[in-house]
Design brief:
The complex is a heterodimer of chains A (502) and B (324). Chain A has one domain. In chain A, 73% of the residues lie in helices and 1% in strands. Chain A is mostly helical and 502 residues long. Chain B is of the alpha/beta class and 324 residues long. Chain B folds into two domains: 161 residues, 3-Layer(aba) Sandwich (D-Maltodextrin-Binding Protein, domain 2); 119 residues, 3-Layer(aba) Sandwich (D-Maltodextrin-Binding Protein, domain 2), CATH 3.40.190. Chain B contains 13 helices and eleven strands. In chain B, helix 3 links the parallel strand 1 and strand 2. The chains are: A mainly alpha (502), B alpha/beta (324). The interface between A and B is large, with 48 and 47 residues.
Chain lengths: 502, 324
C-alpha cells in the first residue's frame, strides 16, 4: 500500500512540475535520435547527457538520464530496420529480424511494431523492478561464475539456429568472432594477447567499431556494385496506420511477448551480460520455439517482437542489481549509479529505506519516459521513413560518416577506424562467400562472457571443473545447451536431406 | 588577382613572422591565468571523474578564470594529452596511480614519473578494507584481522582471497599475503562489481576492496569489516581498526589524486597553481564534498607528490604487479 502511495506521489510530482515533464519529453526524444544514429551507442548517449546533470538535483538528474537511456535503447531499432545497420549493439538481432519486412517495403510497419513491443517489454520490467527488486536482487546472487559460463555455452549452441542454411559457415563465422574477442588483456592475468605489439590494440577490439564495419560497409559496397540498378535509388515503403499491428494481432503473439520480456528482465538482472545478449537470446529462443521456422524467417514480425521486447525489458532488469545490491547490471547502469553517487546517494540494500522518495521517483520516471517514448518515437517515425525515400547512395555516405564518428568516439582511439575498415572488408567478403555475419557478432559478445567466467570459476573451484555439476542452475543450463545442440543438429540434418531429395 | 595573391601572401608571412619572433607571454611577465584552465580527467561517470568534477567546482573559486573538466577515454589518455599539450599552464590532468600501474605494465608510451611536471596532490581516495561475511565470521568464529591471520596459518590455502591482476587492488592483497601473513589462495576475479557479487554470494571468503562496495552491507549486518588497510585509521571508518593498529607493516597504496602539467611548464605557473590547489583542498565545503564520495582531501606539494609516485612505482615493480 505504501509503495502505491509513494509511486502515486512521484507520478503527480512529474506531471505537476513542468520542468520534470519537459525534461523527460526532451531527453527521450534526444535519446531516440541518438540511438537511431548508427555508431552512437546507448552508453555514449548517456555519457553525452551525464555532464549536463552535474549542476542538477538528484531527481532532475535521474529524469534526464533515464529518459535518454530509454529513448536510446529503443531508438536503435529504427536504423536496424530502415538501414539494416544496428543503431546500438542491443539492436543487432532486430537487424536480421526486421530485414524481411524491410525488403517487402514494410520497414515502417516493422519499426511501428518494434516501438510498441519495446513499450510493453519496458513496462513489464519496470513493474517487476518496482515490486520485486529486492527479491530479484537475491536471485541475482544465486548466479555465480559457473552459472554465467553455462548461460554463455547455452547461448553459443543456439548460434546454429541463426547460421542459416550452411551450418558449417555459421560455425566458422562464430569462431572468427570468438577469435576477435581474444584480442586485448587476458581476463585473469591482464597480459596482452594478439595485439601484435600495438599499444593501440591493448584494449582489444570494440564492439561498436566491429559492428558498424561489418554491417555498414558491405551495404555501401553493395550499393557501389548496384549503382546503375533501381536498388541504388530509394526504397519503396508502404503506408501503415498506428503501430502497424492491430491489438488483436499483437495479443496473438502473447507467448512470444511474455517469454521475451522474461528473458530480457532476467538477463538484465545478471551483471555483465547485457541487452545485446538478451535480445539475441530472445530472438534465437523465439526462432527455435516457432512452429513454422520458415515463416518466422520470412515474415519477421515474431523476430522483431522477440528482439525488441527483450532489449527494452533488460533496462528494468539492469536497474535491479544496481539499486538493490549496489552493483551495476550494465555499462549504462554504471553511469546511472555514478550519477547517483555524485548526488550523495549510495546504492545498495538500504537504498529502499534511506532514499524511498527518490527511488519511487526513479520508478515513476521509467514509466513516464517509456510512455513518452511510445508516442515520440512513433511521431518521428514518419521523418525517418522519409530518409528511405532519399537515394540510398546519399543516405549511405551519411551513415558511413556517422559510423566512423561512433567507432572513433568509443575510445578516442584511431585504431578503431582501422578496425571499422577491416570489419567492413571482412563483412563484405563474408557476404560474397555466403558466410553469415550475425554469428560473428554473437560469437564475439558471448566469448567474453564464457571465457571470463570460466577462468574465474576455475580459480574459485581450485581448478576442479567438476564443481560445475554441484550447482543446479549451471546443470540446468548445460542440459538446455545439450538439448539445443542436439535439436539444431537434427533439424540441420533433416533440412539437408530434404534438399537432397527435392 | 595577382595583387590580391601578393597582398595575401605578404600578410600571411607577416603573421607567421610575428608569431615566431614574439616572446612567450609568460616569460615577459606573469600574466596567468588569462583564460579558462582545462583539467583532463578520466572516463565519464567513473569515480575519478566524479571526484575531479567535484574538486573543479571549488578550484574555480580560487582562480580568476573558469575551470573546464574534459572527460577522456581513460586516465592514460588524459595523462598523454596533458604531456603533449602546450606548457602554458592551461592544461593539466588529475589522475591516480592507475597510470603508474599501466606504466609498470608497459602499456604506456611515457614514463609516468619522469615525464610530467608534478604540481601537487589534492586527495587520497578509496583505500581498502578487509572483510568477511557474517555467516563466515560466525562459522569460523573470526571477528578480528589477527584471528583471520591465525586461522589461515593453521589452515593454509583453505580460504580464498580475491584480487584483480593488473589493477591497483593487487597491491594490498599481495601485501596482506606477504607482509601480514594471510595464507589464503589468491584468486583473480575481475572488476570490483564481480568481486562484490562473488563475496556477497558466499563464493569468496576474504574480501579486499573499497568501502563503497560493502558499506551498506556492513550497516545492514551482512558483512563484518575486520580492518582498514593502512598505517592509520580511515577517517570514513574511525571505529574500524587498521592494519597499523595491529602492528602489521604493509605497502602503502592509497589512491592519490595527482595533478600534472607538461614538463616544460614554467615554475612560476606551477607554483601559482599549487597554491590554488592547496587553498581549495583546505576549503571545508570541498572537503565535505569529496568525503561524500569516500575521498579524503589531502594536499602534497609537487616534489613530495613525485617522490610518493616514484616510491609507489618501485613498490609495484617489486611486487611484480601485472606479471602473474
Amino acid at each position: 500500500m505504501e509503495a502505491f502511495q509513494f509511486f502515486g506521489s512521484a507520478l503527480f510530482s512529474i506531471f505537476l512540475t513542468p520542468k520534470y515533464f519537459l525534461l523527460i519529453l526532451g531527453f527521450t526524444a534526444l535519446g531516440v535520435l541518438l540511438g537511431a544514429l548508427p555508431g552512437i551507442s546507448v552508453n555514449m548517449s548517456l555519457i553525452l547527457a551525464l555532464p549536463l546533470t552535474y549542476g542538477m538535483d538528484s531527481e532532475t538528474a535521474m529524469a534526464v538520464l533515464i529518459s535518454c537511456y530509454i529513448g536510446a535503447l529503443s531508438g536503435g531499432l529504427i536504423s536496424a530496420i530502415t538501414l539494416n545497420i544496428p543503431g546500438t549493439t542491443s539492436s543487432i538481432a532486430t537487424t536480421f529480424a526486421g530485414k524481411p519486412m524491410a525488403d517487402r517495403g514494410e520497414a515502417g510497419r516493422a519499426v511501428g511494431i518494434g516501438i510498441l513491443t519495446s513499450f510493453v517489454g519496458g513496462t513489464f520490467s519496470y513493474l517487476l523492478l518496482m515490486f520485486m527488486a529486492p527479491l530479484m536482487g537475491a536471485v541475482a546472487l544465486k548466479f555465480g561464475n559457473w552459472e554465467y559460463f553455462s548461460i554463455g555455452i547455452f547461448s553459443l549452441t543456439m548460434i546454429i539456429s541463426i547460421a542459416g542454411d550452411d551450418v558449417w559457415k555459421g560455425i566458422l563465422s562464430s569462431a572468427i568472432g570468438m577469435a576477435l574477442a581474444m584480442t586485448g588483456p587476458d581476463p585473469m592475468s591482464g597480459i596482452l594477447r594478439f595485439n601484435f605489439g600495438l599499444r593501440a590494440l591493448s584494449g582489444g577490439v570494440t564492439t561498436t567499431a566491429l559492428m558498424c564495419g561489418m554491417f555498414a560497409v558491405p551495404e555501401l559496397l553493395k550499393l557501389a556494385e548496384e549503382r546503375d540498378s533501381p536498388q541504388a535509388e530509394a526504397k519503396q515503403v508502404e503506408k501503415f496506420r498506428g503501430y502497424g499491428i492491430s491489438l488483436k494481432e499483437y495479443l496473438s503473439h502473447w507467448k512470444n511477448v511474455l517469454r521475451s520480456a522474461l528473458i530480457g528482465t532476467y538477463v538484465g538482472v545478471l551483471p555483465g551480460v547485457g541487452a545485446s545478449s538478451a535480445s539475441l537470446l530472445s530472438y534465437m529462443t523465439a526462432k527455435n520455439q516457432s512452429k513454422d521456422q520458415e515463416k518466422f524467417l520470412t515474415d519477421g514480425v515474431d523476430g522483431v517482437i522477440a528482439s525488441e521486447t527483450a532489449n527494452n525489458a533488460c533496462m528494468g532488469g539492469a536497474m535491479i542489481p544496481m539499486l538493490a545490491l549496489g552493483i551495476p547490471g550494465s555499462g549504462a547502469a554504471a553511469i546511472l549509479m555514478s550519477a547517483l553517487m555524485l548526488h550523495n546517494v549510495q546504492c545498495g540494500p538500504l537504498i529502499f529505506t534511506k532514499n524511498t522518495t527518490l527511488i519511487y521517483f526513479v520508478f515513476a520516471v521509467c514509466f513516464v519516459a517509456n510512455f513518452v517514448m511510445l508516442i515520440v518515437e512513433r511521431g518521428v517515425l514518419s521523418g525517418y521513413i522519409k530518409v528511405l525515400t532519399a537515394p540510398r547512395r546519399i543516405v549511405m555516405v551519411f551513415v558511413i560518416m556517422m559510423c566512423c564518428i561512433g567507432a572513433y568516439s568509443a575510445r578516442s582511439n584511431y585504431v578503431d577506424l582501422y578496425v571499422f575498415a577491416a570489419g567492413g572488408a571482412l563483412g563484405y567478403f563474408m557476404k560474397k562467400g555466403g558466410v553469415p555475419t550475425a554469428p560473428i557478432i554473437l560469437g564475439y559478445i558471448l566469448s567474453h562472457i564464457v571465457e571470463r567466467n570460466f577462468v574465474h570459476a576455475m580459480q574459485l573451484s581450485r581448478g576442479q571443473i567438476t564443481a560445475i555439476f554441484s550447482r543446479p542452475i549451471s546443470v540446468a543450463f548445460l542440459i538446455l545447451a545439450a538439448i539445443s545442440l542436439f535439436s539444431s543438429i537434427r533439424k540441420t540434418i533433416k533440412a539437408s536431406r530434404s534438399r537432397k531429395t527435392a | 588577382m595577382k595583387k590580391f595573391v601578393g597582398f595575401f601572401t605578404g600578410f600571411a608571412v607577416l603573421c607567421t613572422a610575428s608569431g615566431v619572433f614574439t616572446p612567450d607571454v609568460v616569460h615577459a611577465e606573469m600574466n596567468y591565468p588569462k583564460y579558462a584552465v582545462t583539467i583532463n580527467g578520466s572516463t565519464s561517470g567513473s569515480t575519478v571523474d566524479v571526484n575531479v568534477r567535484n574538486f573543479a567546482q571549488y578550484l574555480a573559486k580560487n582562480l580568476p578564470v573558469n575551470v573546464i573538466v574534459n572527460s577522456t577515454a581513460s586516465q592514460v589518455d588524459s595523462y598523454r594529452d596533458t604531456l603533449n599539450a602546450d606548457p602554458d599552464g592551461y592544461t593539466m590532468s588529475i589522475t591516480t596511480a592507475n597510470v603508474t600501474l599501466r606504466d609498470v605494465q608497459g602499456t604506456t608510451d611515457f614514463d609516468s614519473v619522469e615525464d610530467p611536471a608534478f604540481v601537487g596532490n589534492i586527495a587520497k581516495g578509496g583505500g581498502y578494507w578487509v572483510a568477511v561475511t557474517k555467516k563466515f565470521s560466525e562459522k569460523y568464529n573470526i571477528k578480528t584481522l589477527p584471528e583471520l591471520v591465525a586461522y589461515t596459518k593453521a589452515h593454509p590455502k583453505e580460504l580464498n582471497i580475491a584480487t584483480s591482476y593488473g589493477t591497483l587492488n593487487e597491491i594490498p592483497v599481495t601485501s596482506l599475503i606477504n607482509d601480514v601473513g594471510i595464507d589464503a589462495t589468491e584468486v583473480s576475479i575481475g572488476a570490483a562489481g564481480e568481486r562484490t557479487i562473488a563475496f556477497i554470494a558466499g563464493e569468496l571468503d576474504i574480501f579486499v576492496g573499497t568501502w563503497g562496495s560493502i558499506s551498506q552491507y556492513v550497516e545492514k549486518g551482512d558483512v563484518v569489516c575486520l580492518a582498514s588497510y593502512g598505517n592509520s585509521r580511515s577517517p570514513f571508518t574511525p571505529n574500524i581498526p587498521c592494519t597499523g593498529d595491529y602492528g602489521y607493516k604493509i605497502v602503502d597504496c592509497a589512491t592519490f589524486y595527482t595533478v600534472i602539467m607538461p614538463k616544460e611548464t614554467p615554475k612560476e605557473i606551477i607554483d601559482y597553481m599549487a597554491a590554488a590547489l592547496k587553498k581549495t583542498v583546505e576549503d571545508p565545503e570541498c572537503v565535505a564534498k569529496l568525503a561524500s564520495n569516500s575521498t579524503q582531501a589531502y594536499f602534497m606539494n609537487g616534489e613530495d607528490t613525485k617522490n610518493t609516485m616514484k616510491n609507489m612505482k618501485e613498490a609495484m615493480i617489486a611486487i611484480g604487479i601485472g606479471k602473474k
